[in-house]
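Bumping with the actual sequence this time:
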Amino acid sequence: MNINYPLEWFDTLILQTFDPLSTNIESLNDNDISVITENISNESIKIQVHLKNEVFSLKKKRHIRVTVRQYHSTLIFLLDSIIENRTEKVLKSEKIRKLADLLISNLDYLISFIEDRFSYYLSLDERVPITYLMVCRKELALKLQRIYKRNLSAEPDKLTIKRIVKILQNSIEADNGKKLTYRRILYFRDLLKLLDEYNDDLENPSVFTPLDELLIDHNFNSVQYISILTERMTEQIYNTEKQSAKLNLLLLFFKDFKQLHSNVKITFDVSHQNIKDVLENWFVSEISFLQSRDEMEELENVLSKRNINSSSQIQDNKIQCTLSSDQMGLILRATDETRVLKAKSMSLIFKTIVPYLSTPFKRNLSYQSVRSKSYNPEEKDKEFVIKTLEKIIKHIKEY
């Protein structure tokens, strides 16, 4: 079994000789540097030949895939290491810097060689090398500047495009070489190409503009962008006066949304759900909330009508009494205390009876007022109530 490590020479040179903590780099003389310079080119050619021979000697695609990815990931690691080491003070001399630059150039070439020849076997989830990342960032930054300067006609799109550019800028700049993958770079490139070519002259009868359709189709599941959409819809819905109209508008938005396509095979943020799943959950919650409010409003209307009808019925059925409200209070209090009328409380007796009574001078009586006055009656009221009751007794005797 062949256990040779084809990248051993590069590995030793970068991780040991170019290690800033070792003394090896300081001991290099002009002859050593000349030999290393010559060997860098020779080793680079040997690795290319070795990889091609190894790939053609393997029969199964699985074995080829493993081999190619091992070379690719190891070269990216070595490239990252030499770029990081080059920033150290001990590697700042002109000769050492040129040697490091030559190393970087050759490693970068080897990575490109693998990506060009054996791209079929590489994983898009492999992180990109730093040199590749630096070039991509410059390229994407220029495209973002051009998109930001576009003067779109639709007001919603003007706000959206500027915020989208900011989101993408932060995402591209925040990602470092260990996080940014080929898949993510491809996503950025495809999306920026679409945004650059976006035609804003298309008619838009929906709350979702053609720009929104583009972003949703590309599964741009940024939390900030989803907030832009939900805020826009919420503003339109709650600017509608009638409760039923709010729900109808929301259902219309939901119908338009259900007709939109989203590519689940790509995504802006792999740590978040597909944008259609997130927005569908939002719609379901909002619809449920507005339906509950409708039901509550309907119940309140029914209760209000009942109260109005009850009040109207009381107004129509009032009985006029020749006694004053003070005198009525005395009689009602006496009926409670003598248990002629029985209720849970004296207050309930007043509350139940007084609304149906009136006097020649007052149509509507307050049961609280009538009850409170029954506790401090005037003598003339007591005398009049007694005379009235005696008159009633006399009539009863005559029956």
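The tokens above came from a reply further down the thread. The longest helix spans residues 275-316.
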